[in-house]
Protein: Adenine DNA glycosylase
Amino acid sequence: MNDLQRNESVRRKLAAWWDTNARDLPWRFGRTTPWGVLVSEVMSQQTQMSRVVPYWETWMRAWPDAAALADATTAEVITAWGRLGYPRRALRLQDCARAVRDRYADELPRTYDELTGLPGIGDYTASAVLSFAFGERIAVIDTNIRRVLSRVFLGEESLGGSAKPAERELVNRVLPADAARSVTWNQSVMELGATVCTAKRPLCDVCPVAEHCAFLAAGRPGLGERRTRPRQRFAGTDRQVRGIVLDALRGLPDGQSVLERSRIESLWADHVQLDQCIASLDEDGLIDMLPDGGVRLPQ
Ligand code: SF4
Structure:
């Protein structure tokens, strides 16, 4: 079998696998708008898709389009973001919504340059929206896709970090020429990386492309050694402290918006770290610090 035949066989096997194994997520299979796809992509960066589903559903019920989100208060947006993590993403998403409403009459643009010109939208999100929402032929490059393609076609682990020119060349080279097939390809490779060809414990026994995988054939050299994403300690970090403060604000009873200083101090024993975190939340626009030492979500 030559390279072209092998590539084609990988595509067919993955497409068949996708037909029966794709997770039934509410933003897939044309069941939402391009804006809904964009929201799902922003929420899924750094957060597992299965955790995103209830947040996405509540979010889209509250703000089904960019104009609706643009009009929400910052406090509502931060509260709805809940425990998705990295809450600055919520503010960037609202900035993006305002730009879509103001520049594009509430219609998500469909060119790469226009999409990447929106606040918070980088190469990955723009490519994913063009592929998944608009059906365009474009290579989507994320951690899962890089890991799977590097293993299958190069027989080695992806190096992580920013994508190298050789990786970009590979991703583009194996992308099907037909637009519809390229969409299925992007989705199925990404899904395989999320559910079967995982970083540490790939399930090669049930993998649909195992017979063509150069990494498996080579004995899975260095499996998991090159972590594509370094493990991050969470306990005791500023991220944890910031999350605790935001959780306390979200959990205030109706009609109460201010977290008093005494309550803040009860949240975390190290008050130096606590105050640094409160200052950084304020700098990021996620809370307002009040003169009496209390804090509240931005109004
Ligand atoms: S055979 Fe194993 S390493 Fe290769 S793509 Fe499948 S799961 Fe990944």
